[in-house]
Specification:
Chain lengths: 177, 188
């Protein structure tokens, strides 16, 4: 039988245990705190307003009828397979209506890319030239890869960035040519 | 075993330590309680905004807007003349009319939704009351971009504000973009 003693902990033992506990709390805090920040940011991902705006942009692309240029770039295996058509020129027949929609909806960026963006994420982030690039990077990293099947060979992905005073909102929607 | 209890000094030190920890934790708990209330209110206003936006967008997308205006008698009433179907190309094809009455003078500001012609005294189909603390800002609530005659766009913008600084960073305004006029519109 173990003999009980009435001796308490010595100062050194208490200090060492306190250090361990503090280190554990520190690690917990540094892990949880960025997650809280990410949660705040995700309120701006695929919100209803941005999703409707993405829907209008999709309708514009499909009804414009000039999506051959988009398809050429998106199916070119040697290129980036990303189309930035924010300035509206060169990709749609009706440039003015595209500009009107962009300006009225405060659209900051419009990208069309492959349906599955697994291997397009890095290129999307590196070619983004707007401000709040960190927020855009987090959004692109947050997006799933949308693995495509052979049945989805004419599926593409539209990504829209909408500008607000203090933040941007983001939406993605599939486009079928 | 030694049956000696704690000395008065040990007890006092313990009480002081526990008091300090309790007071600091109390401040933290109060802070989180406030934050939880703010988040709850944010969730309420977002639900409000999304419900009303979806209600109007369902009409805009499935019917199409022929014209939009504010009432000549009351600039706080928005009138949307909808088509019977998406292929309307002249005013004969206009079907139902949707009206939004922005009531901001009341102690409980609200947006009233009418599915039919507005007549004074007629009850609205639905009343969307704003959560406590929010107010509806001033108009104009309608703006138009008619640069392309065949592809005209309309923006319904109903500003929703809260004087509390916790809500200043987010935009809770109801913003609806819609094509209107000719059925050959590029967004139809």
């Amino acid at each position: 039988m173990v003999k009980k003693t009435n001796r308490g902990f010595v100062l050194m033992e208490t200090l060492i245990v306190s250090c361990f506990v503090m280190a554990l709390f520190g690690m917990l805090y540094t892990t949880v705190f960025p997650l809280l920040g990410r949660y705040e940011g995700r309120k701006h991902y695929d919100d209803l307003d941005s999703k409707y705006i993405a829907n209008w942009v999709r309708k514009m692309i499909l009804n414009d009828g000039n999506y051959g240029k988009f398809k050429n770039i998106l199916n070119d295996g040697n290129g980036t397979r990303i189309v930035d058509f924010t300035n509206c020129s060169g990709y749609v027949n009706n440039t003015l209506s595209c500009i009107m929609l962009r300006d009225l909806a405060n659209i900051k960026k419009m990208y069309l890319t492959t349906y599955s963006i697994a291997d397009r994420k890095y290129a999307l982030i590196s070619q983004y030239d707007g401000d709040r690039k960190d927020d855009f990077t987090h959004y692109i990293e947050y997006l799933p890869n949308y693995n495509t099947t052979s049945a989805k060979q004419d599926f593409y992905r539209l990504i829209v960035v909408v500008e607000h005073d203090n933040y941007d909102t983001y939406a993605t929607i599939e486009v079928i040519f | 075993m030694n049956e000696k209890g704690f000395s008065i000094i040990e007890l006092l030190i313990c009480f002081v330590l526990v008091s300090i920890i309790s007071v600091s934790m109390f401040q933290v708990v109060l802070e989180y309680q406030d934050r939880q209330q703010v988040e709850q209110t944010k969730a309420k206003i977002l639900t409000y905004k999304n419900t009303l936006t979806k209600k109007i967008m369902d009409k805009v997308i499935h019917k199409g807007v022929w014209s939009a205006s504010t009432s000549p008698l009351n600039s706080n009433i928005i009138i949307l003349s909808l088509c019977q179907s998406l292929d309307c190309y002249e005013s004969d094809y206009v079907g139902e009319t949707v009206k939004l009455e922005i009531d901001k003078n009341n102690a409980n500001p609200s947006i009233k939704y009418y599915d039919s012609d507005y007549l004074p005294g007629v009850k609205p189909n639905e009343v969307y009351e704003l959560p406590d603390g929010f107010i509806i800002g001033d108009g104009p609530y309608l703006s138009f971009d008619n640069r392309d005659e065949n592809n005209k766009l309309l923006l319904i913008n109903i500003p929703i504000e809260n004087e509390n600084s916790d809500f200043n960073n987010e935009d809770y305004s109801i913003k609806i973009i819609a094509p209107y006029g000719n059925w050959t519109h590029v967004l139809r």
